[in-house]
Design brief:
The structure holds 2 protein chains of 2 kinds. By secondary structure, chain A is mainly alpha-helical. Helix content of chain A is 59%, strand content 0%. Chain A has 2 domains: 50 residues, no CATH class; 101 residues, no CATH class. The relative contact order of chain A is 0.05. Chain B has 2 domains: 83 residues, Rna Polymerase Sigma Factor, Chain: A (Orthogonal Bundle); 86 residues, Arc Repressor Mutant, subunit A. Chain B has 10 helices and no strands. In chain B, helix 3 packs across helix 4 and helix 8 packs across helix 10. Classes of the chains: A mainly alpha, B mainly alpha.
């Protein structure tokens, strides 16, 4: 280790930014280099001197003016939800979703002879069925890919994002497709001969 | 319990002004001392100090990550730079590259033959303050951001828009020069600090 590197390491150690391995190397260098050891001592003494000096401070009037501004700014700012409120909202959401799904599944079981293929499809169907624009009677789940598409589409619609909306454009995207999975674009760009109905 | 800066700022964002009050109390002296040590007049330091906190108030909801202190000092430093540029005054806060590393003896001779001798009789802290004011601006800034504000070199490098190695080199020059100048002062003032 040369002296320049050693002094940089002294500064980094003072800032608490030196690794344990490099600290050991530095210690060894300081034992054998009185110039760098003096540098480290100077740094330490300067810090002590600056820490102990009476530092100038702003006037109480200045602080008062800043706090007045702070008080005026606070009411205009909506308070973010607190931790427990966020958890409570999440819990209510989960319970409501679980209850709704259970009820929907019971009704579907009673009205259909065959079960839809799997829980993922059921969740997707339920999500769409909760939306005004979705028509549950038109649902056909013929493959696992369909099921996943329905789930994704249901989540997008349920969140109020929409599949064909222009929300992407307002975020700086020129086309909504940039934010929508390719498999969800059948309504805007139908493939020839596609039989899927949504 | 000692609240972190983030917790205090979060309290303020949630509507509790005492959070900001505690933040100001915690950082007011280092920030103000930094502004004064950067050769700002008291009037400039007052204005920049106030504007810095008004910016904090305005942008507090958007502050998410990183060091609050680093953010605070970056705002203050940039406002001071802007102010100096605006009034075109001879406060070399953003200059100093032409003579980035003058010899300690050159820094002591500022046209007042008795000044160094006078300062040499003061206490060590006052001497350090006086000597630091003689440093080239980039070195002085690094020295103060490290010693007064206790920012990391990563934060200092970010503030100065330089590499960490450049920030380290500036700090090394600053410490060496301050040490050299203090030794010179003590010889002239007849005091013998262990520096």
């Amino acid at each position: 280790m040369n002296c320049e590197d050693a002094r940089h390491d002294i500064l980094l150690e003072d800032a608490g930014e030196l690794s344990a391995r490099k600290t050991d190397c530095l210690r060894q260098h300081l034992v054998s280099c009185p110039v760098c050891a003096a540098f480290a001592q100077e740094l330490s003494q300067m810090r002590t001197a600056l820490r102990n000096r009476p530092a100038p401070g702003p006037s109480p009037l200045l602080i008062h003016r800043i706090l007045e501004n702070a008080r005026e700014a606070v009411p205009a700012r909506p308070a973010p939800p607190t931790f427990w409120r966020a958890w409570a909202a999440a819990a209510v959401f989960v319970i409501a979703m679980a209850g709704g799904w259970w009820a929907w599944r019971a009704s579907q079981t009673a009205s259909r002879e065959a079960e839809p293929p799997g829980g993922v499809a059921e969740l997707g169907g339920f999500l769409l069925a909760t939306l005004p624009e979705a028509d549950a009677a038109d649902w056909r789940v013929e493959s696992e890919e369909d099921a996943l598409d329905y789930v994704a589409r249901g989540i997008l619609l349920w969140q109020g994002l929409g599949v064909e909306d222009d929300w992407g454009a307002s975020e700086g995207f020129t086309e909504s497709e940039e934010l929508i999975p390719t498999t969800l674009q059948w309504r805007s760009t139908p493939e020839p001969g596609a039989e899927r109905r949504v | 319990m000692h609240d972190t800066d983030h917790e205090l700022l979060g309290r303020y964002v949630a509507g509790d002004v005492s959070g900001l009050e505690a933040l100001i109390e915690r950082h007011r002296k280092p920030l103000y001392a930094f502004l004064i040590s950067m050769n700002a007049s008291q009037a400039d330091a007052d204005d920049v100090f106030q504007e810095t906190w008004l910016r904090v108030i305005r942008h507090a909801p958007s502050f998410r990550r990183g060091s609050f202190r680093g953010w605070l000092f970056r705002i203050g430093r940039n406002l001071l730079v802007d102010r100096v540029r605006l009034v075109s005054r001879e406060v070399p806060i953003d200059r100093g590259t032409a003579d980035d590393n003058p010899a300690p003896a050159d820094c002591l001779s500022d046209g007042k033959p008795d000044a160094a001798q006078e300062v040499g009789r003061r206490d060590l802290a006052e001497q350090v303050r006086w000597v630091v004011a003689k440093l080239p601006a980039p070195q002085r800034e690094v020295f103060l951001l490290r010693m007064e504000a206790e920012l990391s070199f990563k934060e200092i490098a970010r503030i100065q828009k330089v590499s960490i190695n450049t920030a380290l080199a500036r700090m090394r020059y600053a410490v060496e020069k301050v040490g050299g100048m203090l030794s010179g002062l003590n010889r002239q003032g007849g005091q013998a600090y262990e520096l």
